[in-house]
Amino acid sequence: MISTAGLSLFLRQTIGAFHSTGAVCPSSPFLARAMVAPLRERAGGRRLRVLEAGPGTGVFSRQILAHLRRGDELDMVELNPRFAQWLREWTDGLDKRGPEARVHEQDILRFQSDARYDAVICGLPFNNFSPALVDSIFQRFADLTRPGADIVFFQYLGIRRLKGAFVGREERERLREVGRVIDGWIAKHGRGVERVWLNVPPAGAFRLKK
Ligand SMILES: C[S@@+](CC[C@H](N)C(=O)[O-])C[C@H]1O[C@@H](n2cnc3c(N)ncnc32)[C@H](O)[C@@H]1O
User: Fold this and answer.
1) Measured from the CB, is residue 75 less than 6 Å from ligand 1?
2) Residue 50: pLDDT band by 50, 70, 90 thresholds?
3) Domain that holds residue 88
4) How many domains does the chain have?
5) Structure pTM?
6) What is the CATH classification number for the domain harbouring 163?
7) Where are the extended beta strands (E) located within 70-138?
8) Is 68 in contact with 44 (CB distance < 8 Å)?
9) Is 20 contained in some domain?
């Protein structure tokens, strides 16, 4: 459960950095649970490496870590320095005998790693990005993962159509094109969606398989 301080930080970033934050409040624990579904299916004793893009105040990160064990690794890549600082303070206090959790204050597109991840959990606000950027981010996820890896991202249900009704032609076309790019990745790699009504606004956790 997120603290009052976490909620207050998130709301300040929603106002001060809306383009990159792209949400009015942190995701609910119900959406977080849907986002980590692939981690519940782990088989055997193999170590897991998980990449999280756009952790914010760590709603998904907490659920991810709850499914990891000693020897597993979580890399959190967060662009906003305030969120990154928040996450560092939180991870500094974690039990060092548990899984390793690292915070990278960076743009996900610039993030480099020798690791090939088993799963990507993505909290990025795609609707605020250009279609070309959205496509590059999915391509980056594909490059950073091993074959068979899961990539999970969320979209607010019906939000592009709703927003489209209140914006100009150019913005409507951008939103449409973002939708086409995402649908293209879903058409090639989609493995289903879990709809979560207990979230503000309701959202779908979409799963892709590399
Ligand atoms: C919609 S918020 C989601 C936060 C959290 N995962 C949640 O669901 O409550 C989007 C997050 O993505 C981060 N972000 C946006 N663009 C990014 C980028 N290019 N690279 C890394 N993080 C980014 C924002 O700073 C913010 O923390």
Assistant:
1) no
2) very high
3) 4-13+27-37+45-209
4) 1
5) 0.95
6) 3.40.50.150
7) 73-78, 100-105, 117-122
8) no
9) no
Q: How far is the CA of 75 from the centre of ligand 1 (A)?
A: 14
Distance 37 CA to ligand 1 centre (A): 20
* 22 falls within a domain: no
Are β-strands 117-122 and 100-105 bridged in parallel, bridged antiparallel, or unpaired? unpaired
Determine the angle formed by the axes of helices 131-144 and 169-189, rounding to 10 degrees.
20
Residue 79, ligand 1, Cβ within 6 A: yes
Is 21 within the bounds of a domain?
no
Strand partners, 51: 75, 120
Tens-place pLDDT, residues 145-159: 999 999 999 999 988
Nearest CA to ligand 1 atom 17: 79
* Whether residue 6 has its Cβ less than 6 Å from ligand 1: no
Tell me how crowded residue 67 is: count the other CB atoms within 10 A of its CB: 19
Q: 207 C-alpha vs ligand 1 centroid, how far in Å?
A: 18
